[in-house]
Design a protein that fits this description.
about 250 residues, alpha/beta, Rossmann fold, 7 strands, globular, binds S-adenosylmethionine
Length: about 250
Amino acid sequence: MSFGVVGAKKSISQFLRSRLSERSWSALERSVIRARRFAKIVAHPYGRFVKTPIKLHQNGSKVVRMLEIGPGPQRIEGYETVNVVWARHVDYVADASRKLPFRDATFRSIYASHVLEHTAWYRHEEVLKEWVRILAPGGNLDVWVPNGLKIAKSFVAAESGENTDFLEDAWWKFNPDKDPCVWANGRVFSYGDGTGRVGDPNWHLALFSERYLVHLLQRAGLEQIHRLSDEHVLGHNHGWINLGVRGVRP
Ligand SMILES: C[S@@+](CC[C@H](N)C(=O)[O-])C[C@H]1O[C@@H](n2cnc3c(N)ncnc32)[C@H](O)[C@@H]1O
């Protein structure tokens, strides 16, 4: 998507927002979400059963390959993409918490930003072992997640009147009063698709500390594990709560 299109979408949405009442705006937002969901229901089988095999064939002969798991709205240059839901820039429609449709040691680099928390916490060892299976020896796996420990500490600090550090975050959907408990709910559980639909892939199913994320990467067989800094963010930077760790496959 070009910046022009993004900009136009933004200004149309700003224009509508300024003209509509809060209630009409919410109704419009819900309709857009439903329309998108419907479009995805139609597009999903195409992505999974037509585009995915074609892309697997097309990319199969590439020498150097990099994969993004759970991409945002734009492709990171040079990366192939896998997502559980279809989108135009998604190459492979597959659930990254299950067996992936790639041969062992396929990718030189794997980038997964804010996707591991959408998979069940008690399956992470299995999930990460599968991601490491498709990583080439010497290749790196970068995992970014919300910093659960920071969220928990900030929640406790705000509720006990110690500080309001949580205000440094930028996560205020459904929270016009910036209530710390509503903030913590949004951060810990997320918003799904914003309509409360059970089963949406965007609910959070896990919480992490840096120690635990490092431990998971070790259990998955990675080495040289270290914390990442902002300069390693390739897509959207989740800012204050962002926690990134890299491991290398021996
Ligand atoms: C919060 S978004 C993160 C987008 C982007 N990577 C970023 O950092 O902003 C989570 C993405 O992961 C995808 N996702 C969730 N569960 C998944 C799964 N089991 N397998 C593959 N993708 C998944 C969602 O569809 C969504 O595109």
